[in-house]
């Protein structure tokens, strides 16, 4: 059967049945650990090509060893070779790991669905230690998984302690070295021939023996003897250099030039080989290189691969090292730069953006570096640490001229809590750079630079609306050909423009941007449209357009999402939409569950302010106003420390805080929080405070003065609900009341809202219910009665809602003379009693113990007639008496 993706083996090989037998044994981890030239890859490939096991060959290359990149490459290879079903979380390829802190849980679940699976991981010396540890955890967790791997250096796979929990076999130099019989067979010589002894004396390296088979003089005795005496067997590079010295005379200059050019690349296809060398018969020359042991063909298909256009030729590591070094010594600098950049362009075109970026950065081709980032920024993010290293020594003056690159560095830094200050510096530098260059760029680049400037401003806590509006107008005016230059970035550009517009208060154009993101994504088959759907659903929900929010959320749920996207940054607004939809139905538990799916990322998700607003609504629905206020204090403080509070976010936070204060009975605090702002939303909030304080006349004045055309659907529904309630409290004529009720009912029904009614103060809501029943407005009356069951804003004239702990403190308040006695009776600490007394006094609207007992008795919350003759605790506040 054989594993999928095994490289085609050269013809002139000997069977090493003893090694195959060891690799086929039933154990979890097999490691071939030895220097280059010891035949590790060939031995593992021979086993992988013949094993009856089902599995995959995966080669690790420099730059691909981080956990996220490794997992992405593995998922993509499993998909390409048809080993995944559509429901497997790995089916999305690298996208499955784009928004997760670490990939192992997703990888574990995906591999578990595959049953028995063998992985052959070639060149695991390129894996980072965290990746090696992750693979070992997978082996411990998945008995159905087995791994065979090669490595030139000792890594975590050969730690002795592994054998405690895992069956491990390690093959080192002595096991991999050729036996005398194998050496003779490979060299087509008798076992007692001196050349056989020389190979064994130099470590029995299969690579050395194979190289010598291509030098006819080597079997002649003296030539081979002289060559081997020049070799230091402990230095593979010297072995290969020696091989090149003896092989060059048999290679014509054309073949040498060809080899040096192609060995600058990690892999070439026939087209790239022709481009680099100008040789029309590049395919034949690559075949010759394979026959001479200088590389292998790899590609899609079985281990019996026939060379096709899709196949890649990968130089052998030791040959590549020597020939590329020779190229760098012998070539003109201008020619070498030309080849390196040609390879980089091929890598960029063939899904190897990091490799392309590394070459382009080394060559200091900044326009090309910018182009790579422009087209592949999302694919580059998993290489974060390595990209930061690439640009570590690039001067800030240079980075200031590369705003796309600087923004990528900012996003990488922002993903790490300890690098937030560096991220802010990069964002500001990117904003400066985009402004400096915007006047000289073509329209497509002006869109990107304007978008990045808005992102930099938004993430650093400033208003990115102006830059976003400019980018919106520019992209709208683009010709089809200019817009096509944005490529797969277009949906992401629309998403970012829309988010910046949303946070600057321009909701209509934000919605238009998200719709454009979805359309562009659907047209191009991109995944960024999923985030557009989430943003659109959440924006409609925040805006109070619940019918549209539900429809868009349903569309989003019908799509196939990469694993963890819905519970990370891309899907955060979808979870917000679901939470608000649930809340409008009265289901606080479901709303809370949706927000809890984001817990892992809440600290870094930029949408913290609207998520906090929904948190507060949930707490108010559960009658926990004090919990809501504490949550606001905690989160707002943390976000201010991160400089993540813009003017617009601060304004939204003001309304959320005022609502929580009002629900806690702190009317004056709510007024103070709102300040002097004169916008319609503030007028509605002030009217709610006035109505809570039993001042319907002031409430109506405020509501009448607020311009309805400037309101969102949510604010308008709250405006109409409060207006109808104020009219009911004033007892105005039936015609006036009927009209006010009808307008409120129509707005609530049209947008499937209930929270607007539930946020009417309790006493006013009771009057509104009486009005609706009296006027025989049955549907509206049912709606109001349901809202009364939720009542989120208690009125001073309505019995306060006390928690069970507050009721317990209230029941002890008239029986004991001090906080310590109450604490002893309830078996809690005095500090706990003090905190509960403060909350109790605030809810009762009193400042003294005597008044508290009187109000409690009036509402039947404590037994009347309790002794109130001792000194008042509250004269000093809820402190020790």
UniProtKB/TrEMBL annotation:
Residues 795-860 form the HTH luxR-type domain. Gene3D superfamilies: Tetratricopeptide repeat domain, Winged helix-like DNA-binding domain superfamily/Winged helix DNA-binding domain. InterPro entries: Sig_transdc_resp-reg_C-effctor (IPR016032), TPR-like_helical_dom_sf (IPR011990), Tscrpt_reg_LuxR_C (IPR000792), WH-like_DNA-bd_sf (IPR036388). This is LuxR C-terminal-related transcriptional regulator. The lineage of its organism: Bacteria, Bacillati, Actinomycetota, Actinomycetes, Micrococcales.
